[in-house]
Design a protein that fits this description.
- This protein is mostly helical.
- It has a domain of about 130 residues: Butyryl-CoA Dehydrogenase, subunit A, domain 3, CATH 1.20.140.
- Helix content is about 85%, strand content about 0%.
Length: about 200
């Protein structure tokens, strides 16, 4: 009986050893697979986060591209109108008005120069994708802020001009220039609300 028990114990231990030898690689492989899955999941989440940031940046970029064009087109039209007033003042030999309109044309040129520079910067982003776009976007936003820094100085110049204008048409267009200039640079891309996913919009209905 004792010998039989010892024989059984030896067989049991040998079986257990065999199980551990052959089962260990499976456990290890299972662990490796789990780690690989975790890495894949982390990589996927990183890509989704970058995609969400890029989507938001591109939304702001498209908005800035559109509003810059609209402001430039509007100021271009006003510039030609002011120019026609200047020609009429020259024909009428109204030299005071002529001088005022020429000064205003100079102001319009200054603002159009800022918007033109911003347009060039924005056009550079049209063919950029992915993470490179995010790098570009930061530079673009920095360029916008630099142009905004010059607003205070020009604002004082325009306000000083308004106080001295006698011609009512000249006064009207200088005020329109200042109003549009302020409105353009009041926009702050950092305060833009994120684009709400379509799925969330559907949940609210």
């Amino acid at each position: 009986m004792r010998r039989g028990f010892i024989y059984f114990l030896i067989i049991f231990l040998l079986g257990a050893s065999s199980y551990l030898i052959y089962a260990a690689p499976d456990v290890e492989n299972g662990s490796d697979k789990t780690e690989a899955e975790l890495e894949a999941q982390a990589e996927k989440e990183d890509k989704e986060e970058i995609a969400a940031i890029e989507k938001q940046a591109r939304f702001v970029y498209e908005k800035m591209l559109k509003r810059t064009k609209e402001y430039r087109d509007g100021l271009d039209n006003e510039f030609f109108t002011v120019n026609s007033y200047a020609r009429k003042a020259i024909e009428a030999k109204d030299y005071n008005s002529e001088r005022e309109f020429i000064n205003i044309l100079s102001d319009y040129n200054s603002v159009l120069g800022d918007l033109g520079l911003m347009q060039v910067i924005l056009d550079l982003g049209k063919s950029i994708e992915g993470e490179k776009f995010l790098e570009y976007y930061n530079l673009m936003e920095s360029g916008f802020e630099r142009l905004k820094d010059s607003f205070s100085l020009k604002n004082e110049v325009f306000l000083g001009r308004i106080d001295k204008l006698k011609n009512q048409d000249a006064l009207r267009y200088e005020k329109k220039l200042l109003r549009n200039y302020k409105a353009y640079f009041e926009y702050d891309p950092r305060l833009e609300k994120p684009v709400e996913p379509e799925a969330n919009k559907g949940d609210k209905k």
